[in-house]
Amino acid sequence: MLPKLPVLDSWISTGAPTSFVEAVLSLGKARCSAYVCFANVHMVVEAQHDASFRRVLEHAAIVAPDGSPVAAAVGWFNRGKRQARVAGMDLMPQLLAAAAERGQSVYFYGTTEPVLTAMVERARRELPTLRVVGTHSPPFRQLTPEEDAAEVAAINAADPDLLFVALGCPRQERWMAVHQGRIRACMLGVGQAFPVYAGLERRLPTWARQLWLEWAYRLWLEPRRLGKRYLVTNTQFVYMMVRRSLAMLAGRPVPRTPAFSYSVPAPESEHIVL
């Protein structure tokens, strides 16, 4: 898998965006029951406060630097290593195109039926060879054990290589961790990438994203839902960055090896469950 470097107490995967595409497709081809997280500031701060969520990130096969501040922090804490942002909104279309080219199948899980319908329509229009083997919009509540078992069975019966999950952070990350070993696919928590891919939500131009303004745009779109998250967690992230930087200047050691290392096992059968 891709090498990981520390950002505060989270371990972030590094490499060129194309290497992330290849790594995810490798997991899908091997039918590993693995999951991929896309770490933004909110996720890194959540991991600082919650040890159980930090373990969720540690056991992810890939933790992509979804947010520009997270990508920049990779270099800040690791001797100036340059790391490009690898956002779920950007990587998902690339993965779908690559999956269509290589004959890998996909399944969309989460969000609402109108969003899923719009996504499938776009995929069929732009990627006619892409095999979309299923979609499902679960209820916005905790599932019963029987409901969860039925959904897992339905996903495995559809037999996707890649399972894209949009349940919101941190719910989707915890969901993937709980279902590792139960779902025979590479799961990717891409959240807001669903409505963007569906064409129901616009993104800022590239130049604005390069100026780290995407969070402000989303805050403008959803002030009630995202106000506390962005204003509080962004402030906490800056505070934690300054505090950790001062500790490093004072000679405090930073861990250099992740607590958990993930590698793709050699396929011995059609499906692999870790």
From TrEMBL:
Give the signal sequence positions.
none
Q: Which GO terms describe its molecular function?
A: hexosyltransferase activity
Which keywords annotate this record? Glycosyltransferase, Transferase
Respond yes or no to whether keyword Repeat is given for this record: no
Domain of life of the organism encoding this protein: Bacteria
Report if keyword Transferase is assigned.
yes
Tell me the Pfam families matching this sequence. Answer: Glyco_tran_WecG (PF03808)
For this protein, the record's CDD domains field holds:
Glyco_transf_WecG_TagA
Query: Which NCBIfam families does the entry mention?
Result: wecG_tagA_cpsF
Record protein name field: N-acetylglucosaminyldiphosphoundecaprenol N-acetyl-beta-D-mannosaminyltransferase
Q: What is the originating organism of this protein?
A: Hymenobacter gelipurpurascens
